[in-house]
Amino acid sequence: MEDRYGHRISYLRVSITDRCNERCAYCMPGELHEWLPREGILTFEEMLRVVRIGMALGVSKVRVTGGEPLTRRGVLGFVGSLTQIEGLHDVGVSTNGTLLTRKTEAGVTTASALRECGVRSLNISLDTLDRHRYAQITGRDLHPDVLEGIAAATSAGFPQIKLNTVLMRGRNEDQLLPLIEFAAGRGLILRFIELMPVSTTEVLSEENFMSIGEAKRLIESHYGALIPEPGFRTNGPASYYQIPGRNQRIGFIGAMTNLHFCESCNKLRLTCDGNLRPCLGSALEFDILTPLRAGATDSELRQFFLDVVDRKPQQHDFRESYQPGRKMIAIGG
Ligand SMILES: C[S@@+](CC[C@H](N)C(=O)[O-])C[C@H]1O[C@@H](n2cnc3c(N)ncnc32)[C@H](O)[C@@H]1O
Ligand code: SF4
Question: What would the pLDDT profile of 294-322 be if each residue is shown by its tens digit?
Fold first, then answer.
């Protein structure tokens, strides 16, 4: 699948729930949220069908996200079914990390169960090492759970674990170096993400915004010039660097300030309420739930996918201070 701008689509992000056990200010401010009605959420079978359709058209990597995906009942069974799909070699999960130590019926941690299911990469959000600040950012005092979750994930043997840190002036700019040291000690890839305008204006004011350029300068003032690694890519739009003198990779995701951000975009998103979304930063989304439930054939659904890809914009609208009506939690970050 290739769109009119040469974006080749190989990556589907599947949001399996809009629910979450945290209330991050930039994603789901507590006072605003209403859960989607349960019948409006795709069943796992429906999601698997959409993934298979996507695969017939070139999708080779799926990331399960949310909301918090580990809050949905049956998530391990779903992930297990995904990894069993022939030809789908790369299944990842994005999580806030708070539930990774929860024991499954088999008595192992959720982290181990995910690895045993065949999940290759885990992305875990961690904006700060300070418990008090963590509670302020996420609305929940679950920092110890996340640290234990990260420990469980590292011992579960995933080929790749990334920590994601959203940059926020006044909230975590003093945490960049401690987070780098934290990641170094555990062999994890740390990525810094620019705040995107998908939540309330109060959180997204210019005062709170910190660019990846500024974060990079701050890091370089301590470690020296970072060494670019243009040859290293994960599936997303991050640029990676090595810290000089040590074997540590860090990444930067600059949706707002990197003007080439969208050029290599390979993604489509499936929202938990059954919309295919060609771009996170554009209001366009297309209802695939209705045709799915109305008995559309595989070939009709394939055509639906191709039509969505055809509508993929050249780039996102964030820089025009676009504010979609939906919050990140409902789109699937
Ligand atoms: C929506 S979350 C879903 C998965 C999981 N609950 C988690 O927190 O990782 C996916 C990612 O989006 C990021 N995110 C949410 N809102 C954001 C925003 N306004 N700007 C930038 N990143 C955001 C989160 O920090 C997280 O790394
Ligand atoms: S970023 Fe993740 S943990 Fe935070 S509210 Fe959004 S979905 Fe929940």
Answer: 999 999 999 998 998 887 766 666 655 54
Instruction: Read off the tokens for 268.
Output: 């489509």
Closest residue to atom 4 of ligand 2, CA basis = 24
User: Rounded mean pLDDT of 158-169?
Assistant: 96
The partner residues of 189 in beta bridges, in order of sequence, read: 162
Does the CB atom of residue 153 touch ligand 2 within 6 A? no
Strands of 90-95's sheet, edge to edge? 227-228, 239-242, 249-253, 189-193, 160-166, 121-125, 90-95, 61-65, 11-15, 267-270, 275-277, 286-287
**For the residues of 41-93, what is the DSSP string, one character each?**
SPPHHHHHHHHHHHHHTT--EEEEESS-GGGSTTHHHHHHHHHHSTT--EEEE
Q: Check if 22 has its Cβ closer than 6 Å to any atom of ligand 2.
A: yes
Classified as helix, coil or strand, 299 is helix
pLDDT score recorded for residue 233: 74
Alpha-carbon distance 197 to 320, whole Å?
10
Q: Look at the pTM and tell me if it is higher than 0.90.
A: yes
Backbone angles phi, psi at 303, to 5 degrees: -65, -35
Give the Cα separation of 55 and 132 in Å (integer).
Answer: 43
**CB of 27 closer than 6 A to ligand 2?**
yes
